[in-house]
């Protein structure tokens, strides 16, 4: 009997759990999941190492955050709860692990410290095996780590986009002069210890705006500073009939996505369409229509990507009411720090000083780190630790050019769960031999495309801009993209749900390797019913 090949999976977050489920279903590979903490979930875990705060709600709805073959056990009891809390999502992941019997594959408290080539199968090292070295500490061995190692046929890196909190050097130097408390967003939990204090939030993207929302309810004054004003997109937006539906239900239908991509071919054309759409859904930030807005948007010049957006239930209202005082846009930054006094400046020459600041919460993002990889692997993926936007450049952010027994899943900024699942399915099929590894031409072209994107200035907000179109592209590679024209003729009702309804990842389980058409149709119907509930 031939034993299964072994796969080392680094991380028990969304990507690691999902990938392990897929290779278990295929049956030709055996996963070992290395998790450095004592819990599953990664950024969404319930451990002290989690990256989320107590009141956090996801900014994509429950259906968007469901795997294609596993819905939440208790779907939202009312419309407001379609955006799950961190706790609800963590419980969902626990039930996912239980349902697919993954717990026995996880090595908790196991921090991978080195991954090195061990057995070279061919002369160019592309199909080498890997020696994984990890330290184990379960707090029951007097805090003395025990070092282990094991040989694996494949390695899949699933450490995510939140490896290490990031603070730029110049900001870090200035903050050393601050006499109060400094917290990074990854360590923020709730405003309890900040009650009655004057608090500064540094940053203007997703975490900064949502933490400002949380903090402003309890503190004496909440101040926010950031380089840019982002479009403040509400979690519920009006559709063409004036009904308020979750923002991602409005954005993510195949009909709207394909119409946009068929009518506008270049990045520059798509950028202009996005600018018009964003200002249409955030009209109160249009400087030409509302010159008194406290977070006005200046449309970027042609041939430049749009300013970024953030999704929040009531951020805009809290700013306009004065609960959050903003120094954002025009490249606002901290100019100097003197004890508890901080001076801000911008490119317009404006200078403002705020005194008696008690605490600072730094929301400056994360770095993606791979401290366990050898230099030649880091060179193969064009790794740049200082680049938060694109720290590596490989085909589809997943497949390296040279080393073909290692892959990366979910280590890219701003991707959705559906994209993570598609990558998991793709890599599992490639490593199990069910699909061929991408050819050299695709690997080279894909790598060059991402290197080109790395050099674009100003940069778009995210490396991957269109979830639906992107997932369909991967589905075509896998062989699980439905034939929509055929479905349109033979099953018009299903076609309407797939094309005009809210994008459903179960559509990729209708055909192709590992498909389950019966279950897929049940979940597609569930999505469509919920979509209609909001739409009507």
From TrEMBL:
Keywords: FAD, Flavoprotein, Monooxygenase, NADP, Oxidoreductase. SUPFAM superfamilies: FAD/NAD(P)-binding domain. The keyword NADP applies. Coiled coil: none annotated. Signal peptide: none annotated. Pfam families: FMO-like. Belongs to the FMO family. This is Flavin-containing monooxygenase.
